[in-house]
Design goal:
Largest sheet: 4 strands, antiparallel
Radius of gyration: 55 Å
Helix content: 40-55%
């Protein structure tokens, strides 16, 4: 049958191709093994020959071994794995010196003084009160940490004017209670004192 013959012919051709590939692969394996064997031979030839001498030939080697051990021991003694106490003391002194210098520098910085600006409304008894005399009385109040500022007169009602005056105070030395008590002490001139504004500066 023609179909069967063609199939056999094709199979025969495939078998031949496989056989050729196997032969090619076998040659490559043989070549690789030969190269590997040459490399191993060259390595064996380059290796130092082992001495088979005994007696006098081994004595220097035995003598050299203790010397090497002694050198290794000295090298180990020279290595300080944990550091000496003197190093720790020196480091502690350096830290203490730096801390002292930092504290000294910090102590030399000027202290920040907390201050406030206060605006006061000072009201007289009536329109016949001399507001200029009232202002003069208010400014006569003196205290450490008190500095009087600008002032003006503002209308209240019925011809009455009030004194609007500012001052700067150091918070730790002068408070609003002190200002109110000191100003109202001028009973003939001052009816009342109000805090119009209070601002930190």
């Amino acid at each position: 049958m023609p179909g069967a013959m063609d199939k056999l012919t094709r199979i025969d051709g495939e078998v031949k191709e496989l056989r050729q590939e196997v032969q090619k692969f076998s040659k490559e394996v043989v070549n690789a093994l030969a190269k590997l064997e040459q490399k191993l031979n060259s390595l064996n030839l380059g290796a130092p020959a082992q001495t088979s001498q005994t007696g006098a030939g081994t004595a220097p080697a035995k003598a050299a071994a203790p010397a090497k051990k002694e050198e290794a021991k000295k090298a180990d003694d020279d290595i300080d794995l944990f550091g000496s106490d003197s190093d720790d003391e020196e480091a502690e002194k350096n830290r203490a010196a730096r801390a002292a210098a930092h504290l000294e520098k910090k102590s030399k910085k000027p202290a920040v003084i907390a201050k406030s600006m206060i605006t006061l409304d000072v009201k007289p008894w009536d329109d016949e009160t001399d507001v200029k005399e009232m202002e003069k009385a208010v400014r006569s109040i003196e205290a450490d940490g008190l500095l009087w500022g600008t002032s003006k007169f503002a209308d209240v009602a019925f011809g009455i004017k009030k004194l609007v005056i500012t001052c700067v105070v150091e918070d730790d030395k002068v408070g609003t209670d002190f200002l109110e008590e000191s100003i109202t002490a001028f009973e003939e001139l001052v009816q009342s004192v109000d805090i119009a504004s209070f601002n930190k500066i």
